[in-house]
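fyi for ur records
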Amino acid sequence: MTTSDFNAQAAIGADGAVTPGHPQPLGATVTAEGVNFSLFSELATRVDLLLFDSHDAAQPSRVITMDAEHHRSFHFWHCHVAGARPGQVYAYRVDGPNDAREVGTRFNPRKVLLDPYARANINSLWERTSALGPEDNCAHSMRSMVVDTASYDWEGDQPLRTPQADTIIYEMHVGGLTASPTSKVASPGTFSGVVEKIPYLQDLGITAVELLPVFDFDERQVLRIGPDGLPLRNYWGYDPFGFFAPHTGYCSDPHNFTHITEFRDMVKALHRAGIEVILDVVFNHTSEGNEHGPTISFRGQANEVFYHLWPGDRRQYMDFTGCGNAVNANHPAVAKFIIECLEYWVTEHHVDGFRFDLASELSRGAEGYEMDVPPVLWGIELSSVLAETKIIAEPWDGGGLYQVGRFPGRRWSQWNGPFRDEMRRFVRGDRGLVGTVATRIGGSHDLFHRTGELATNSINFITCHDGFSMNDLVSYNHRHNEANGEANTDGAAENHSWNCGVEGPSEDPVVEALRMRQIKNLTALLLLSRGVPMLLAGDEFRNTQFGNNNAYCQDSPVSWLDWEQAAKETEIHGFFKAMIEFRKRHPALRNPQFFSERRNERGLPDVTWHGVCLERPGWDDSEARVLSYTLAGFGDAQDLHVILNMYDQALDFELPQVPGHRWARAVDTAGAGGQEYAPPGSEPLVPEYTYHAQGRSVVVLIALPEQEVIPR
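which gave:
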């Protein structure tokens, strides 16, 4: 399209009065008389607002030109369109100097751009290839929709504000939770499907769901053709373009403007069940990729602002994410965008928290170097709107920046990668780790004991979406990612896993019994440790990804939860549920503080470390594979004694004597068929002050007052 053609379209339509409007707020804001539109572009020379009659109209019915004299206020282009209403489909074209090498600008008036602040987007006509190259792509572009966020009845709902120390996170994929036909929900793979599974989540006992990305992403993008000849697509969603918009693919009826309503219905229903909603958010990169990627939004309006560009040749994108580009998060305009986005999800959608993907990228300055005081991260921490919102960092990025234990700010919780790796190795049977394991059990004092930080700054996990599931961790020594079409070179090569003697599925009852016990051991360690535990959806019923440890492109049974498996694996499900309930019952496991040698009313320190013999934990023993410890209960809380035997043989452990109390067995992972845990009030007494712990087992004893002991 020529410049004259671009100019000619400005004359189309004239059915609503256009006035200059206001520069703030950015995005499309419904007013009593119409809609105010505002867009950030510092170096643009002209902006056209395109109005479409429907989501599938190939061309706009009206084009409104915003000239610099009447519709520009410094960085912002804006206008008010009288008579425009919610449901209006719109987009932009932006023109300006195209000087990619020196300045970094990539204006192209032929490209149709989404509104970065759009509350909903439509992809009815979208073809990603049309957004590549210089040609006009209007007939195959995505568009945004005007949404009135004030017309929803929250029925008194508010964020739950569950204390951090009481939180138990369940990480899950919105689509994968119910995409399988085995889920038997009315709208598989949607926000509505999640609502149908709330009774299951509530019964399990978790307190929060952490949703893999729900910001709009390009689910149609074909990454490559898999070995089976079928296209592989962006399944996880870690490649967003619409940061204020719920993902179109998770809506059951997006063309009827249900994005906001369906997402809010899910949040409200989860809150009614006492379950918080944490969003996994991706502000480190966007779907526009590198210099060969599509023009969707940011690239066409302020490329030089939104992305890290190489100083010597600003045509090239710095890449600290492994995804082609990196967001220049500490530019004032981008920091404003990020913080306003987060505040929007809290105020308008009642979201309870955020987990930041590759969060260390957000600490980089304009030229990519690590900043001591990154404005955007401190802006998030200090925002009054976000003050009671959970903020969780994945404290590393794809460019080598690793900030576990030193992430900027104070109240940020952090994914504890060392906890994952060291617990996996210990349960596998690696030697000489008992000192490190003790530190992790206590909340990782070595990582998080800075001014004002607590054990609850640690997000403890054994598995997450990225890597093996719990079942596969004990079933495979090696990754099996052939289905990803990358010759099995993708995903982590070292998983600290152990297949228990057979690679993959096994019908050997001895192997299967050992695998079941190892899953229980890992789960017990996670839920017995101070910090905030995070579980991976499906681990509680041994969901498998068939050895795939990088299923980012598998929108298939590889990644979907198999609910027939859930119905079958009742023993392991029962153990997960019992351990969650046990954690909730015992404050000594949920204390947000680090151990401090404080003594309780019975004279017990808050923790005493042992080995097979009392008070001899074997810190310096390079062969040690056992650890035991006593936790003091304060007030009405019970004292606990935990035995960890990761040798492959049974051992006798000495037990401490607590005046006026007897030990009773609450958990022993060597049991099977429901015998590995005892319901409250039915814990069998330990007759002596020794306990015979089987090899590869975790034992938890509770102290009962002698006057309450009933022989059984």
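The first helix runs from residue 3 to 8. thats all i got for now
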